[in-house]
Design goal:
With 896 residues, this protein is α+β, with helices and mostly antiparallel strands. It contains 28 helices and 33 strands. One of its GO terms (biological process) is proteolysis.
Length: 896
Amino acid sequence: MREGQAPVIRREDYTAPAFWIDTVDLTFDLDPAKTRVLNRMKLRRNPDVATQALRLDGEELNLARVLVNGQGTSFKLDGGHLVLENLPDGHEPFELEIFTTCCPAKNSKLMGLYVSNDSFFTQCEAEGFRRITYFLDRPDVMASYSVTLRADKARYPVLLSNGNLVDQGALDDGRHFAKWVDPHRKPSYLFALVAGQLVAREQRITSRAGKEHLLQVFVRPGDLDKTEHAMNSLMHSVAWDEARFGLSLDLERFMIVATSDFNMGAMENKGLNIFNTKYVLANAATATDTDYANIESVVGHEYFHNWTGNRVTCRDWFQLSLKEGLTVFRDQEFSQDLAGEPSARAVKRIEDVRVLRTAQFPEDAGPMAHPVRPDQYIEINNFYTVTVYEKGAEVVRMMQTLVGREGFTKGMSLYFERHDGHAVTCDDFAQAIADANPGSALAVLLPQFKRWYSQAGTPRLQASGHYDAAARTYTLTLAQSCPPTPGQPHKEPFVIPMGLGLLAPDGRELPLQLATEAAPVPGHRTFVVTQASETLTFQNIDAEPVPSILRGFSAPVILDGGYTDAQLLTLLAHDSDPFNRWEAGQRLALNRAIKYIAEDNQGTRTLALDEAFIEAMRGVLRHPTLDAAFKELVLTLPAETYIAEQLDVVDPQRIHAVREAMREQLAHALADDWQWAYETHRDTGGYQPDPVSSGRRALAGLALTQLCLVARQSGDTVWPGKAYQRFKDAGNMTDRFNALSALVSSGHSLAAQALPRFHALFKDEALVLDKWFALQAGAPDRGGNVLPAVRQLMAHPDFNLRNPNRARSVIFSYCNANPGAFHRTDAAGYVFWSERVIELDALNPQVAARLARALDRWKKLAEPYRHAAREAIARVAAKTDLSNDVREVVTRALAE
C-alpha cells in the first residue's frame, strides 16, 4: 500500500504518553515551495510511564536539524517517526529543537499546511500537525503555544494564528512578521495558521461579564458583502452559550477564516476557526434558505467547541463523540432556541431526525457499523461519521431527557468544574451529568445507559397494544432488540426514554394513569424502557386509544408500532406532537411504497394511490393553522435511500420508479391544491431567512415542482412557463433555484434554456456553481441520461477534481445522492464510481474514502446490481497503492 500496512489501533491498548510537552515555540518562514519550520519545545518525562524512547510523529517532512538543550544529538527515522533515545535522565524539563521544511504548494491532501488560492491554511484534526513538524501528535498532549509567522508582506499581508496577537512589524526585504500567543493549553490538532490576501468584517462585543471582545470574519476580497449572516450567527452563538450554559468567550478575539479548499465543513481551532466558504458566505442573491440555516448551525457548532472540545478535549480519538456528539446536540439546541416558536422548533427537530434516519441508520446496518465510541480503527479520518456526530448527539439528548433541561445544565457545570483544561473520556462526561443529578433515572441506570456508547446498531422497539373494554384498560407491550453488527453478535438491552401519549378516537389527548397510580397525569409522559420486554397498563380508558409512541423522537430507535392506516390517519390529523404527526404521514407513504414494490416487482402494473391517502395529504396542504414549513415536510415523500432501508432486498430502479409514480400521482390528484399553495405562499416580501418566510418559500417551491410534473404529463406549457419566468425574475436565490429545480426535476425542455442562463449569471460565484453542478448530477434519470451528463460535467472548464466542494457537487451528488441513476443494470455507474475513488485517492484520500462508502450497502442489492457492485469494490481493493483511508473502507465492505 502507498502508506504501508497500517496497524489496527485499539481503545483497550491506550497508554499515556511517555513524555509531556509543556511549551511549543514555532517560527514559520512561509513559502509555497519551501516553508521552513523551527520548532522549539520544552518536554519532560511522564513519571507514571516507564522510561521509553521519545517517538515523534511526522509525515512528508524534510528534517534539517535536531538539538537537545542546544546540543546536537543522535536520532533515527523509523517510518513515520523521529526517534530519540539519548535524552536527559530524570523528570526535569529539557529543550528540544527541530528544524524542518515542507512544500505546502504540493499538499493536495489538504491536511497539515497547504496553499489554496495563493494563501496558506492548515487543517490539523485529526493527525495533520505531524505534516507540519515532528510532534507527539495525539489529543492528550496539551501544551502552551507561541507562534511567529514571517512572510512576504505584499503577497501575505494578513498573518493569523491561535490566541492573542502580541507583536507585529516589518522585516527586511519586504517581509513582515506577526507573533501570536495562545493563553490556553491545547492539543496539536487545534493548532492553526492562515496567511494571505484577506479582508475582515469586524464587530466588537461586550460579554455579560463586562469584557470586550473583537469578532472577525476573514474572506477573500470581493466576498465581504456575504459575511453579515455569519457574523450575526457568531454573535448569536456567543450570547446563547452565555445565557444557556454560562460559558463565556475566553479570548480577546475570535476569528473565522473562509477557504474554498477544505475537506470538511469547518474546524474549531482555538480562537481561529477555519471554515469551508460554503458555511460562511451568503447573501440573498447567492445563498438559499438552507444555506443560511446551515451557516447558522455550523458557526454555532464551531464556536461551541471552544468549550466542548477545546477547553475540555478528548483523551484519545476513540472519544471523538465526547466533543462532536455533545457539540452537535448544542448546535441543534441553539438552532431550535433561535427558531423561537414551537412549530419552528419542531421543524428543526424533524429535519435533524431525517438526516439521522437516512444516513446514520444505514451506517448502523452496514459494514462500517461502529459504536458511538469505537473500539478500534485503522484510519481515524474514517470515523468522522454520522454515528459519532448525529447518533452521539441523540445520546446526549437522551441524557437531557432523563435529567431534565435544568439538570443537564447543572451537569455541564460540574463537567467543566471537574475537567476544564484536561483531556477526558465519554465516561467522564456521562458521570458528571449523572453526579449532578443524584436520584435521576440517568444516575440510577448509568452503567446500562452507557451501552449507547459501547454497542453499535440501531435498536428496534416493538410495540403492541391491547384494549380491554370491560376493564377499561389499555395495555402497551414493548420489546426491544438490536441486530448483530461487525464484531458484536449479541446486544444487551438499552435504556430507551419513550415519549408517549394516547389519543381518543376523535383525536383528543387522554390523561395517562398507570394501574399502579392513584391519579391520572394529563397528556404527554416519558417512560423509560430498560428490559428486553415490559408492559404498561393504563386504566380508565373509555374507548380503544391510538398510541403516540416515541414522541419527539425521544430515542434513536426503529419503532415497529404495527399501526393501521386508520390509526396513522388519526395521528396525522390530530396528534399534538408535531414529530409524530409528521411521522404518521411518512409511514402512510412508506407503507404504500413498500406495498407497490412487493406487489409489482416487475414494474408492469400501474400504481394507483388510494383516496384516503390523497385526502389526508390534501387535508395537510389545506390546513388553516399548520405552518408552511411543516406542510412541506409532510408532503415530501420518504427518500429513496430510506425506503431501501425498509427492504430486505433492494432494487434501486424499482424504488425510484415507485417513488416517482407516487410523486406524479400526488401532483395530479392535488393539482388545484398545489396551485392554491403556490399562489398563496409565493410572495414573501423582502428577503428574510426567518423560519416563517423560509417555510413559505419551501412550500411554494414544492408546489411549483409538482405543477411542472403535471405539465410534463399533460403537455401543458403554462406552469413550466411560469417556472421559467420565476427563475428569471426571482429576487433571491431560494426562489430562483426552486424554479430551476422544478424545470430540471420535471425534465421540461425549458431546463435546457435555464441551465446555461444560470451559469452565465453566476459563473464567478463558486458556491452557486456547486449548486448548478449538483442539480444536474442529482437529476431524475430518464433513459439513462444522467451518467453521460455527469461525465460531461467533469469535462466542464469550471470542474476541478482537486477542489473538494466541486468534486462533491458532481461525483457525490451522483454516486451518493442519486440512487435511481447510479444503480444501473449495465453497471456503468459502478465503473464510474471505482474510477473516481481511485483517481481521488491519489489526490485526497480523505475525500476518496467518503466516496468509497457509496456502496456500503451492496449486499442488500438485488441482482444484477449486487454482483456488479461487489466487482467494482473488488476492483478498487485490488489496487496495490491505495491509501489506508480507502483500504479500510473497501476491505470492510468486502468482508463476509
